[in-house]
Design a protein that fits this description.
Elements: E1 2-6, E2 9-17, E3 26-35, E4 42-52, E5 56-66, H1 67-75, E6 84-93, E7 101-111, E8 116-126
GO biological process, one term: sterol transport
Protein name: MD-2-related lipid-recognition domain-containing protein
Organism: Amphimedon queenslandica
Amino acid sequence: MKAVTKKFGKLINESLTPYPLIHGKKYTIQGTFYTNKTVQWGTIHVTLAYNFRNIANLTLVDEKLNLCDFTVDLLKLHCPVPPGIYQFNYTDTVPKLFPPGRYYAKATAYNEEGDEMMCLMIDIDIN
């Protein structure tokens, strides 16, 4: 289940494989990102919470990242990023220190004025 708000851009044709994620194994996120405004600079706020025994959500990740560094890693583009459609393919490994279970992830991107450009929320299962 995911929810996305889009003010300056949108995410389409996204996929996460394998799903559910496997503890300690590689995963790939692929998709297409569309932006209708130039991204000069910005931040991305990423949070990841773990549902501990259906009692409490424990925040394991709460990071603010430079959006321009993130676009280099994800899209291989340096800021300013002009309006357009961009393909991405990102591979990483599920950290072994994350226990199996249900996670809630949220990533919110802000432009240089602090305006929300896009927000992505997703529930993730790790086996």
